[in-house]
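Worked Example 4.2. Consider the chain below.
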Amino acid sequence: MSENALPAFEIADPSEVVAAIDAVSAGEAIFADCDGTLWAGDVGDDYVRLAAARPELFPRSTAAERDVETYLRRVDHDYEGACLQSALLSQGVDRVAVFAALRSTLAAELRPRRWLLDAMLQAADRGVKLWAVSASGRIPVDVGLDLLGVADRFGVIAVEVDDRGPIAPWSIGFGKVHACRAAGLAAPAVAVGDSVWDGPMLADARHGFRLPKPKDDGRFDASAADLRAGR
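Applying the procedure from the previous section yields the following structure tokens:
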């Protein structure tokens, strides 16, 4: 899949995003990408780093599949393939052991985009449905949500695998929309992401917003209340 084939979105103002989330009604849904959107960093990348450091936890993987530098180069020229490579590391693992190891690794590092998480959780309190829709594998996404203390507030669409390989449709690029439909989800009221790869999901929403990268979001750690007040 070429990036040029994906819908393009301009970077949205965070205050505009909060206002749109505040207008979502009970029973409607908000979809959010995870890496670079709900939090800074990429848990799929971190999963490969864990496999490289703790290969005994990933018995079906090869040294090449765990090689971090090779994987990161692949991200740049074959994003979809890199996402699948990371997710496939979960084949044959002890989920409890891998979950605990990754959680320990990320516990001091994972930073939420506070204003977004605030606004989404406040929407959930009034009956809006929240979905994390990620191109990372299910285990690292579950770890990220658990570390933010919101695992029970979000449904999850992530790249799932079984003994035969990745389970189609996988949630990468246009696959985010296909995976959501396969799960029985209608188009959301609001969708947020930080990458061109989120474009199809944003285009599918009533209101789709491409967020600044965490390093470029000067209000990353601000609260939703701060943005509503113009701070």
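The first strand starts at residue 29 and ends at 32. The chain has eleven helices and seven strands. Compare this with Example 4.1 before moving on.
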